[in-house]
Recover the amino acids of this structure.
């Protein structure tokens, strides 16, 4: 009887194809506006180093939690991913906002996105390195460019960036999430290859 139930369970489980993985990952875009909203509500605008650090930590932790869920069974250790994303965003937003003197014009926000994305990417790469090897060294570079694009899209869409958010709006978040869907697809591919 147990062999029959095992066989039935195996036939019911759908394979994780790249469209299915990408669709689940797209839900992680919610981590950006949710984390940004909480940071703006609880901490305020990014107009000082303290606000940038605290807002970045909160936004990054929320984003990391949503991302780790969105990766499904192939996710890295949840606590490590959440902490890395939170600390990376704290450092990235703190440095990036400071470098541009807390300005919110498109050029300043693109620079802030480059720095934030690079440091979030470096922190996340440290979590992924034992599992994926040196290929993860491209992640900080890719994330820097992708997060810069997120700010450019948000600013170009007419979002009120003068409110000094910790992270780009939903339009930028959708673009960033789509461009980073390669991560869960790659994690799933390496998981299948090692099985």
């Amino acid at each position: 009887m147990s062999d029959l139930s095992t066989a039935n369970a195996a036939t019911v489980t759908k394979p994780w194809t790249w469209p299915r993985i990408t669709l689940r990952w797209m839900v992680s875009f919610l981590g950006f506006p949710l984390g940004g909203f909480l940071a703006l509500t609880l901490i305020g605008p990014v107009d000082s180093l303290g606000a940038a650090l605290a807002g970045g930590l909160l936004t990054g932790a929320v984003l990391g939690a949503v991302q780790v869920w969105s990766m499904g069974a192939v996710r890295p250790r949840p606590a490590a991913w959440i902490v890395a994303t939170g600390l990376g965003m704290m450092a990235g937003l703190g440095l990036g906002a400071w470098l541009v003197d807390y300005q919110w014009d498109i050029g300043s926000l693109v620079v802030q996105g480059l720095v934030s994305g690079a440091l979030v990417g470096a922190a996340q790469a440290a979590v992924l390195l034992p599992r994926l090897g040196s290929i993860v060294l491209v992640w900080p570079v890719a994330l820097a460019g992708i997060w810069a694009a997120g700010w450019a899209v948000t600013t170009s869409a007419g979002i009120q960036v003068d409110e000094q958010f910790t992270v780009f709006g939903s339009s930028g978040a959708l673009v960033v999430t789509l461009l980073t869907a390669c991560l869960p697809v790659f994690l799933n591919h390496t998981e299948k290859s090692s099985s």
Observations:
- The chain has one domain: 19-194.
- Residues 106-132 form the longest helix (27 residues).
- Residues 4-12 have pLDDT under 50 and may be disordered.
- Residues 45 and 164 are 5 Å apart (CA to CA).
